[in-house]
Every structure is written in structure tokens, then in C-alpha cells.
Amino acid sequence: MTRLQIVLTRVFLLALVVAAWECLPRFGFANPRLLPPLSDVLTMLAQLLGRPQVHEAIWVTAAEVIVAFLIAVPLGAAIGVLIAENEYVGDIFRPILFYVFSIPKSIFLPMFILMFGIGFGQKVAYAAFSTTFVVIMSAAAAVESVKADHVLVARSYGATRGQIFTRVYVPSMMPVLLETLRISMIFNFTGVMIAEMYASRTGIGHLIANWGENFQMRQLFAGVILLAVVAIAFNETVRYLEGRCSTWRT
Amino acid sequence: MANVTRLKERPEATAIEVAGLSHVYSGAEGGVAALEDISMEVVAGRFVVIVGPSGCGKTSLLMMLAGLRHQTEGTILCNGRPIQEPDPGRVGVVFQEASLFPWLSAADNVEFPLVLRGVSKDERRSRSEAMLRLVGLEGFGARYPHELSGGMKQRVSIARGLVQDPPVLLMDEPFAALDEQTRMTMGHELLRIWSATRKTVVFITHSLTEAVYLADEVLVMSARPGRIIDRIQVTLPRPRTYEMMATDTFGRLRDRIWQQIRKTSQPGLEG
Q1: pTM of the model
Q2: Residues of A with CB below 8 A from B104's CB?
Q3: Interchain proximity A248–B146, CB inside 8 Å
Q4: Which residues of A are less than 8 Å from B98 in CB distance?
């Protein structure tokens, strides 16, 4: 298939889903109380975006996501680099990290609530905790993607340690690092949502959980669409940068 | 080229002097002797090839000549001064395949050593253009390594090794990953570049044909621990031609190296 055919098929499939979402409940093939028509959901989304209560929830969630990200990424990257660069640290901590990485992080959520109470701190701490492990793993992989030959070349031309870092490590790791950012944001966002849905007084996750419990399906779907758009937009932006930075990767 | 070193002013100067060099690796089961009592002298402007069986420590020796590894014993002098750490002003290194930085264009790869020393952009560009012209890649500066063939990549590596105009060029099996035809062409090209720049070259290979074709002198190393077991003067006239490979002299030299290497290889592993 040509590129155009593939794109057209995708658009067609999307149109099919949109049409089904609109028509099935409208014409009685699906229960509109369970699946409200898309147009109703979009109207609700527009209304919700005008409400101060929703604005507040968006800001709270955004703040939690950003703060958790800013904690998890540098922390995880530092630990990951240490593990990959220092043989002893790596030998000691690598298995422990793999063990902890394999545990579903959500089971620790009650402990975070006991430690931090219900609020901003608990959401941020839990999301940062669940994200850090992914960042550690990817950052270690990024360091390991640096070729020893390239470091040797730089050394043979008299590069200092600083120059080896900026001229060999950084460009070598850039594609993997961007991928790390992208994947860690997915985990980070998930972490905040789980924490908000589990126990919270505000935030988008809290609203979505509430709407679900109260059987407010139009609001619930509107919230889902809002979150999906934000998440996809971030992911695609970083993916675009990844593509720009890794044309040389083969 | 304005910046070619004039070695002819001191015709018999010694470029590299290695004396009593030994190396022992500390492994899990105690020390492993990698190199044993290596002594060699390379006259400035000569092309010396080191051959030996796999694992004889020839790459280790080259790394020590480049100041990238430290020997356990012995001294290495380059232009009369000891080599203790990489000194790109005295020694340029051309590595095995895939040593180019894939995120830099060919020109930027050639300029890399100059960037480290903070040379201005204009001067870098003019030097890299001159080097790319020298290695026959004029107009390819903007290409990235993945857009170049294996032979072209090694041309870029050679240009990078020469860009600071060091009197000595060390080459670690630079053509090992190339196919036979490209390899022959590259050998011939290297001789052309060498005669244009008159560098002292130490070249490592495991190809006997390549060794005889390129060298003024071939040093044969033994299996581990690596020692120099034979020094063969290649008397074939220069410039070398492909036809020389069919001559008796070429065959005899090639055979003498092969016999030496065969003797030193472990029994049972002989070809």
C-alpha cells in the first residue's frame, strides 16, 4: 500500500468510530445512558471547560504532573547514570531495582496516603515514585548506548572529561533520553491519575472518578477526551523532537 | 598543502622508539602477559606494518603508542619525547570501522579534533575541506556517515587523523571491515595520501597481502604474549602497483610472513 492509501484508511477508520459513537446511541442500537452520542459529549466538554471548578481541577492536576515530573526525571536520570557508569553501584543496586520495578506501584498508594495525607504532596510523591524507576532503567540504557569506540576516539584527540561528556555522551544519548522523557511522562500522568482517583478532593482524576460513581456518562466521556488530547499532544511533540534528533540512528 | 610537516629536513630522524615494552593484564586468574619485551624503531617518514595472529596484542601495542593505554614496563618515545597520554599534536589515530560520530556530518567529524582545541570556525572549515580533498571526498562534507559507503567512511577517518597534521599516523586495521575490492583500492589510496604527506605510519593488519603491499618494513608478532619475531624489509620499489602482487618477490615476502605466523600459532588452530 502506498503512504496515501495508509493515511486514507486511517482517516476512514477514525470516521467510522466517530460515526458509530454518534449513531449507535442515537438510533437505539446502544443505550444512550451508558454511551451518550459523541455530539452530546462534545457539547458537555465545551460546557465543562467554562466551569471554574473544572479550571481549578485542571490546574491542580497540571501542577501535580509537572512537579512530579521535575522530581522524577532528574532523580531517576542521576541514579541511572550512576548505575551505568559505576560498576560497583551497578552490581549492588541493579537487581534490587529490577525487583522493585516489577512490583505494581499502585499497591504502595495507601502508604503514601498515610505518610503524606490526602493532598498535593501525596499525589506528587506517588507519581514521582512510580516514574523514577522507569527513568532509572531508561537512563542506564541511554548511558550504555554510548559506544566505547566513540569515547576512545575522543580521548585519542585529547578530549577532557567535560568534552567527552558534552561532545560524545550527550549527543549519543539524546535519542534515548527523549524517548525516556516521553515514556516517563506516560507513567507520571498515570501515577497522578491513579492517586487522584483513589483518594482526592480535586483534580481531573478525582472529577472523572466522581462522574463515574454518579453515573454522569457525558461528563465522564468529556473528561476522558480531554485527558486523551493532552496526553497525545505531549507524546507526539516529544516524538517529533525524537525524530529530529535521531535522523542518524539506523 | 601548506601544513605538511617537512620531515625531509632530518632524513634519518627516528619518529618512534619503543624499548623493552611489556604489558601484563590483571585478570580474574592473576596476570596475563599480553606483550613481552617489544623493541622497535621507526624512522621518520617510513611505513611500518605490524602483523600477527588474532589476540597477539597488536591493538594493545597501538593503543600504547597512542597514549591511550599504559604499559607495565618499558618506554615509548615519539619524536624524542615519551608518550604518556594522548597527544594529538604528535600522533593521529585512525580506528577500525564505525569510529565516526554518526550525529556529525563528514566535515564535522574531520573537524572534531580541532573543535576540542577551540580552533575558529573559519579555520576549521578550510582545514576540513583541504583534508576531504586530500582523501578524495571533495564535496561530500555535508553527508552523514550513514549516507557514506564503508570505504568513504574510512577516508573520512583518515582525514580526521590527519587534520591536526601530526607527524605520526597510527592505523588500527582501518580496512578490516571492507570488502576485498574496496580494501585494495583503499590501500592504494592510502599510499597516495602517504606519499603526499610523508607521515610516519604504523599500520596494523592481519592481511598478509595488505602488509606487503603497503609496507617499507613488516614487523611480525607472535601469539600471546606478543613479541616481535621477525622484521622484514620490503624492497619492492615505489610507487607500488597492483601488478607487483603477481611478482616472485611479493610472493616470497608474503610467504615468509605466513611461515612466521604459522610457527607461532597454537597447534591445532593452523589453517
Answers
A1: 0.78
A2: 171
A3: yes
A4: 147, 149
At residue B98, the 3 state secondary structure works out as coil
ipTM: 0.85
- Could you give the CA distance from residue A79 to residue A122 in angstroms, rounded to a whole number? 22
The distance of Cα A55 from the centroid of its chain, to the nearest Å, equals: 21
pLDDT digits (tens, 9 = 90+) for A1-51: 788 999 999 999 999 999 999 999 999 898 988 999 999 999 999 999 999
> What pLDDT is attached to residue A70?
94
Q: Cα(B71)–Cα(B31) distance, rounded to whole angstroms?
A: 13
User: Coil, strand, or helix at residue A27?
Assistant: coil
Q: How does pLDDT run across A91-109, given as a tens digit for each residue?
A: 998 898 888 888 998 899 9
What is the distance in angstroms between the CA of the first residue and the CA of the last residue of chain A? Answer: 23
231-250 of B, contacting A, C-beta below 8 A: none
Interface check B86 vs A, CB under 8 A: yes
* Pairing state between β B200-205 and B168-172: parallel
pLDDT tens, position by position, B201-236: 999 998 999 999 999 999 999 888 888 989 999 988
Amino acid (one-letter) located at B198: R
Strands in B30-43's sheet, in edge-to-edge order, are B30-43, B14-27, B73-78, B81-82
In angstroms, the CA A124 to CA A133 distance is 15
Element (H, E) at B41: strand B30-43
